[in-house]
Amino acid sequence: MPDDIKTLPGAPDGGGMRDTHLADALSERYLAYALSTIMSRSLPDVRDGLKPVHRRLLWAMHQLKLDPAAGFKKCARIVGDVMGKYHPHGDASIYEALVRQAQDFAARYPLVDGQGNFGNIDGDNAAAMRYTEARLTTVAEALLQGIDENAVDFRQTYDGEEQEPVVLPAAFPNLLANGATGIAVGMATSIPPHNAGELCGAALELIRNPQAETVDLLRHVQGPDFPTGGTLVESAEALREAYETGRGGFRVRARWRKEEGKLGAYQVIIEEIPYQVAKAKLIEQIAQLLEEKKLPLLGDIRDESTDKVRIVIEPKTRNVDAAMLMETLFRATQLENRIPLNLNVLDADRTPRVMSLKEVLRAWLDHRHVVLVRRTEHRLAAIARRLEILDGYLIVYLNLDEVIRIVREEDKPKEALMATFSLTEMQANAILDMRLRALRKLEEMEIRREHTKLSKEQKALQGLMGSEAKRWNAIAAEIEETRKAFGDGALGKRRTVSGGALPAIAVDENAFVEREPITVILSEKGWIRAQKGHLPEDAELRFKEGDSLHRLVHAQSTDRLILFATNGRAYTLKAEAIPRGRGDGQPVRLMVELTNEDAVLELFVPAEGARYLVAAQDGRGFIVPGAELLAERRAGKQVLVLEPGKEAAVCVPAEGDMVAVIGENRKLLLFPLDQVPEMARGRGVQLQSYKDGGLSDAKVFTRKEGLSWWLGDRVRTETDVTPWRGNRAGAGKLPPNGFPKSNRFG
């Protein structure tokens, strides 16, 4: 026992106590834990792409003879064997690893063929292992190919009672084909799945040209190929950099198409979602954002999936651009996902390091070369043993009588045979073990044919061992067979579309603002409120006693309304600031600076590019652009300059080519609109002259359509307006019969 260890009374042999610093003891033990985690749990081996738990699962299933052509066995039996013989961990983690290898939406090339409920893309868990069954797939069979031919090293299991492979022969490029993820102590790995046919093509390129660079390999490998499909949206430069350094990431988007409906309506169908995204959680996320009004372009979402993904996206309106709608969803949801690349693996010396694409493929090819050499040596040894026995058999047939005599008469026939015919011990034992039926003449011919065949095979294998070029040609032929087996057909067809770097889609920021139709209601006494939706003009509305409707305006919740008052000022109201509900609202004077003497003349939503005719009681007015009526201050903007004691009388849209004005004296005058100047502010020009009274109403109309006005609940139109035509500032004439006594157009 070392001098620094103190013996303890009653301690077993070798037990004792040693003084040491706590920091040293912790670092020593944590380092041991870290190495165990890195090498025996979290990082895959670059040669077969498997972590220990996966390798032990496949080996245990191979031992149970669960080949692709065999029947299924309960997963509980498989997990029990793995846990009891090879993997001293919990059954839940072992079963989870088995389940993941059986899920066709998680593994690009499943290694386990599952029967029963193994979960789904919605994120639901698999059934308990007592209900499910499993066996190996042809891919797993390729990984195990040659394992019984001394292709790899074996080691003792944790209890020393069994043997397990250190690595599998791996005739399939599993590391990149199925990918891997894991978190160790101080390091992690993240490898997305790829297409096996493309990987085999890149490996063959590397055999033909060992100096090939990443750009040469990327002519074969088009990027990750996820089992759930989708569209890869990365530039060629980003792919090259990621595969050269072994670090990077790949953006993958859901694949969608536009499905046309009736009358211009459409819906978006999502047929593939990004890798490692649970469909149910994705729909829940989108529905939550829709409820929070963070996706204003989206109308509805529903899941119509069966065994195939079909998510239906309905736009808010048919005018929404489908590309813009999807762009907003890609930005806000997991319909676009980033898959990291961190090629951190254990190399052939069990050292963790980050490799490039070329280094990973080179390591796999070198492993296949080692496997080929070991299998060839194993086969040569088996052939040598068999030829040795066959040589002994041929001696029997050449000296049959003497052999029979020795066997019958000698006390020690084995030694006598060896001495008489110069046989080895193996040959002598084989001769003594022969059955009488094997002494037929026909059997002799079969032995000679077998001897000739094995001799030829031995010569060919010796030639293979003597030429590195022949060995690499043999490996290339094996890889070509792997490409045909797993790179063609439905299993090998590429699922992820390489979309390249997508062009930027401009998303209008206003698209993210929630819009909804509202009706703004202004009463005669100046109370204002808003209700959802566009109410009809004749809707029943409730007001305070003695109050009534003044203006009813259809608007959107994002609009800005113009309020034009009798003081000649224009005010701007934000629709979102108008109180909602079925109450009385609030006085408009609390929203803008109006005195008790001022009243609201007009309330409207200005149309883009519209102009308006404003005029005062004295008959003076002008045309003002709608943009000039907007004012951000509560005090508004003085538009119409009034004489003392006068008020604004008119603010109407200037849409047409003629102006109709009628005075309190009931005189009607029509003149061209172009006689009225356009101004931003002022008194304007005289529209109509009066001896007594002032302006009652005005209207802009189109001459060809005629002048119309409301008469009760119907509209009357006068097409022949020649009698009332004149020039601006004229006196006018009495209106046609039937014109309202209120002297207003409606």
TrEMBL record:
GO terms for cellular component: chromosome; cytoplasm; DNA topoisomerase type II (double strand cut, ATP-hydrolyzing) complex; extrinsic component of plasma membrane. Keywords: Cell membrane, DNA-binding, Isomerase, Membrane, Topoisomerase. Its EC number is 5.6.2.2. The keyword Membrane applies. Signal peptide: none annotated. It catalyses: ATP-dependent breakage, passage and rejoining of double-stranded DNA. InterPro entries: GyrA/parC_rep (IPR006691), Gyrase/topoIV_suA_C (IPR035516), Topo_IIA-like_dom_sf (IPR013760), Topo_IIA_A/C_ab (IPR013758), Topo_IIA_A_a_sf (IPR013757), Topo_IIA_dom_A (IPR002205), TopoIV_A_Gneg (IPR005742), Type_II_DNA_Topoisomerases (IPR050220). It is an enzyme of class 5 (isomerase). It is a peripheral membrane protein. GO terms for biological process: chromosome segregation; DNA topological change. The record marks 130 as: Transition state stabilizer. Transmembrane segments: none annotated. It is found in: Cell membrane. Residues 43-510 form the Topo IIA-type catalytic domain. NCBIfam families: parC_Gneg, PRK05561.1. Belongs to the type II topoisomerase GyrA/ParC subunit family. ParC type 1 subfamily. PANTHER family: DNA GYRASE/TOPOISOMERASE SUBUNIT A, DNA TOPOISOMERASE 4 SUBUNIT A. This is DNA topoisomerase 4 subunit A. It comes from Belnapia rosea. The gene is parC.
